[in-house]
Structures are given as C-alpha cells and as structure tokens.
Write the structure tokens for this entry.
Amino acid sequence: MLTVAIQQGINGIVVGSLYVLVALGLTLIYGVLVQINFAHADIVTLGAFAAYFFMHGLDGGYLASIGVALLVGAALGFLVNVAVFAPLRERGNELLPLIATIGVSVMLENLMLAWFGPIPYAFESPYSGEVIRLGGTFFTVQSLLIIAMSAATIGLLYAFMKFTFLGKALRAVAQDRETAGLMGIDPNWLIMLTFVIASALAGMGGAMLGPVLVLTPFAGASVIVKAFAIVIIGGFGNVEGTIIAGLLVGLIESFTTQILGPGLIDIVVFALLLLMLAVRPTGLIAERREENV
Amino acid sequence: MQGGGSLRWWGILAAAGVIAVLPLAFPDSYWRTNLIVCAINVMLAIGLDFVLGFAGQLNLGHSAFYGIGAYVSTLLIMRLGVPFWAAFVIGVIASGAAGMALSLFAVRLRGHYLAIASLGFAVITYQILLNWISLTQGPLGIYAIAPPPPLALPGLPAIDFGNLANLLYLVAGFALLTYVLLDQLVRSPVGETLTAIREDEISAASLGIDCRAWKVFAFGIGSGVAGAAGGFYASFVGTLVPDAFFITESFTVLAMVIVGGMGTLSGPVAGAILLTILPELLRGIGDLRLIVYGVTLTLVVLFMPGGIAQAARLVRARLGRSPPWARGGDR
C-alpha cells in the first residue's frame, strides 16, 4: 500500500513538474501583459512534434531534441507576439487578444491535423526503458530526467527573475509598465522577451511530455486546460503559487487515476478549480492584482 | 443600431419571407440539411452574443449549455416518455439554470477568470457526458431519436416534421422568433442596463443597478437559447454523441459571433450563416472547415474587430450620404 502511494507520488511529481513548465509560461505572460495566450497549447504540441521529427527524421538524440523543441517554442512565441499581441496592445481591449489567440489555436491544431494526421505518434524516449529499482518502488531514468530538468529550469528562471538586471526589469514592467518605461526600460522589448521565454518553456515541456502523452495534434490542448486550472489555483501571475499548484495538480491527477480511474481526472481538477474560484479567487498565494476578482 | 423601428420590422418580415421560400429554392435534402444546421447555429450565435456582446462576459462554456439542452430533452423523451415539447421546454430551463448556476459561481469574476471558469465548466460537462455511461451511453451515443411529433392544427392536415422542409420551417421559424425576442429585449431598458454594466460596472452599481443579478440573468437567457438549439439538434440529427459538444463547438460559435460583429444581433446572424455555408462551398479542398474558422477569427479580430456589422456600416457610410471625396477623415 505504501509503495503504491510512493509510486503514484513519483508519477504525480513527474507529470506535475511538466505542468509547471507549461503553466509558468502562462503565468509569466499574464504577469507582464495581463493577457492569456490560448495558443500556448499548440506551442507545447509543436515542441513535441519538433522533438519527435528531430529524433526520427534526423536521427538526433533525445537530449538534443529537447533543445530543438526549446528553440522552436521560442520562435513560435516570438511570432505570436509579433502577429497578435503587439498589434492589439494599443486597442486596450482585455478580451480581443484572448479571442484572437483562440483563432490562432484552432488554426494551428487543424493545420497539424491536416499535416500529421489524427493517428497518435509513438514518441519513445531511450530513457523510458531504463528502470531503477529502489526498495519496492521503480522509476525510469526518464522520470528522473524530467524531474531534474524541470527543477533546473525552474531554478534558473527563478534566479534570472530575482538576480539579473533583465529579470528585475521584467518584474518592474509587470508592476507598472508606464513607470518602467520612464526609467528607460523598453517595455515592448521586455514583453517580447517574456513571450520568447514563456514559449521556450512550453516547447521544452512538449518535448518532455511527448513520451508521457498520446502525441496527436491535440496533445497540447489536453495539457493546457489543466495549466489554466493550475494558473488560477496558484493565483494568476504568481510564480511561486504556480509551482505549488502545478505539483499539487500532478499529484491529484495520479492519485485520482489510482483511486477513481483516469476518466475522472478532468472532473476532479476542474471541480477543484471552481471550488477555488468560489472560496478563494485570488489563488493559493494572494496577489495584489484584484481587478479580475 | 441603424434605421428606425419600422425599418427593423420590415427587415424581420423580409427574413420571414426568405425562410418561407427557402425549401422551394433548395429542393435537395443536402442543402435543406445545411440550412437547418444554419438555423441552429444562428440560435447558438445570438445566444452567445447576448452574453458576450451585450453583457460583456466571455463565455467559453456555450458548448456545454448546448449539450445540456440536447441531452436533457432527449433523455426525458427516450427514458421517461415525456412528450417532445414538454421535454424541449425542460431542456431549455435546465440549460438556463445551469448557466445561472455557473454565473452565480463566477459572479465575482470578470474577463479572463470567467473565460477560464466557463471553459472548465465545458470540460467537466463533456467529461460527464463521456463517462456517465449508464445515463448517456458515453461515446457510443444515443441512437434513433425521433423527430418532433407531427403538429396537428384544427382544420389542417398534420404537419410531419420527419419531412426536412417542414423541419426547416420549424427550426428557422424558431430562430427568427428568438431573434425578435432578443432584439426586443436588447432595445428595452434591460438592454441598456446590460450595456451600462458592460461599459463600466462600478458606475452602473453606483446608479443602484444590481450588477450581479443582471449578469446571472443574461447568462441564463444566453444558455437557455443554447439549450433550445440543443433540443432541435438532437431531434434533427437523430443521434447524440458527447463529441458534438466538445469545447471546439464553443470556439466555433465564438468565431460566428466575432466574424459577424459582437454587440449587434444581426451581425452574428450573418456570421453564423457565412461560417456554416462557406465551408460547405469549399468542401472540394478537403475538411478545412476549422482551419477557415481559425484564420477568419484571428484576421477579423486583428483587422476588423466589429466584424461584418462594422464592414456593413462602413460600406453604407461610403455609398450613402456623401461621396467619399466630399467627406473629411474616415473616423
């Protein structure tokens, strides 16, 4: 019984840390722009496909494919910002950019469907077969790799935001874009940088999620709805809250699968989300931002 | 928006005339089927526009209310033997009540939070339809749903809705009726109140408007209309599977509203018709329907956020009063 619990706990942390990577991107963008990028899901999917084709078409290694997915994600984030968010910024409407990215998302998903087809791709990491045994519990090298890479990435991002000049500038823009502009920080450049970083995380998350998920053009969409839930549960725009909520949702998911069956995961996660919205809409860690509540 | 009151009624009369000749103009069942789908989409679009365009609330859960209407009415008919129209009304009430319940839950939320809460509601509803197999038969679906029962008017032969032309009259007529009712509502003080809340909630509240109650009301109406569309959908298609009410359906209807022009009722009607018929005409290139939706949705938001309604106004302004060279700046 205890070993089952430990095993599910590890699975939950693996999935949860990948959710954190995806959700952090949403949180970063929301923190700076107070906007939601719905096409974030498809950056995850395209990251996964980029990694898959790099491995199977170009005979690349798995670790290198994660790097490729990161670059593809960064490029896509750059494009989404240039094509949608930058032109809509002056209009100042809070819902139009969200609606426009829903359009981008529907378009990308169906373009992928036309190109890649609906049949799932078998994306296998070479590390999924290597199993380490510790007492009664097993874990694959792949899951260790995911936890280590996610932790390292999150740590780097945290250090970047806390200690570097650019990170401080980003936080300044998030707090008050106009004042930051007066201090000689170019907000447009920093918003672009935020999109690139956020989307690089999504692409990288996609490459690591590829072997976990069923890789179809809609793989990202199934992750993103949970990422939205995580971002709200953690408190929109709040990095620490997002990390905690992401791991929590991963754990809830793996224990729901164990106890109630996999069909009920979304229901449990979103029931938690609605409960959270009713009881504590500011999220686990309250932000100063209150205008949405 | 435009014209006087009488002009509007002439437009509605013209629409009724068009509906009257539609089955005569399209004798083949392929186009009649498409036109019924069109009428259902018009209902979905004006229902969503009432919530989004007039009350200013981004509802991504429209697919769920559509599905609730369809499943509740069908299950009542097939499991409990409830007569069609009674089941239809209960389905509409159930959808409206679900919308009001979600709205009550999310009433403190605005903008993005509401969008995600309603998206979450759509995900939960879809998963329940998929997983509650003893009730909904899950992904296998419910089959052999009968069309609405024949309508027997005294002194006339019974109208059989198994006939596509009659069903088209029924659904399109109902869509027109819904349009007229929503149009009246929007032009009444109720519409003005909702617009005031959309524009500035705090000022509206300071005038003594109970913003909460009005938002819940708007959500209830919009979801109820979606429920009615669902009731017709089930009896028209004859089968129900959860996939018909996946979140994509919410995005499809959103595209119709935005392409038509949110905040006007006639715009989303045009959007729904265009986005239903256009992909049928483009069928030769394969199933590109959703790609077309995605591209048009993005382009319209970027370049013409007022949609077809805005384009029509611009054209009228150009053609109408003064020649373009005699006018000053365009804005």
Notes: The first helix of chain A runs from residue 2 to 33. The CA atoms of residues 21 and 154 of chain A lie 8 Å apart. The two ends of chain A are 42 Å apart (CA to CA). Residues 288-293 of chain A have pLDDT under 50 and may be disordered.
